[in-house]
Predict the structure.
Amino acid sequence: MGHSGEMRRGDAAERGSGQDGRALDLQRYFPYRMARLAEQVSLAVAEVYSERFALTRQEWRVLAILGARADIATKEIGPLTTLDKMQVSRAVQGLEARGIASRKHHPDDRRELIVSLTPAGRALYRKIVPFALARETELLNVLTPEEVKVLDRVMHKLSEALG
């Protein structure tokens, strides 16, 4: 019995199957499909901020976070944008170099930087938002209103489970 069991496992491995005999079809594999869809959506939205406003993906994410508040500590940006510390730093530097954002030291901790939009940055944010929201509407228009609600619930449920 041990010998035939070993053969079956070997056969499954040769076919690219798991121990239960099922093969992994990348095109149907949920994590891959989700990552691919996220990239497709990201590229569709990039047309708004990249082509029209010459912002990188990282700069756009930082701009979007800053647009919703008066200022923010740089260490808080990463968790809100899925950017790592270096990406946040580069994005903030890029925005600052273009006069879109400014940095100052935190009054209680000189090691911490606080970032805010400049008046030009606020104006840019107000200019981009309608285009970004229009693109979102365009993407979601292929779904019924009920499908949009279900998608929102599903994304929230998966995020909670993974968070």
In short: Strands lie at 72-73, 101-105, 113-117. The CA atoms of residues 99 and 118 lie 7 Å apart.
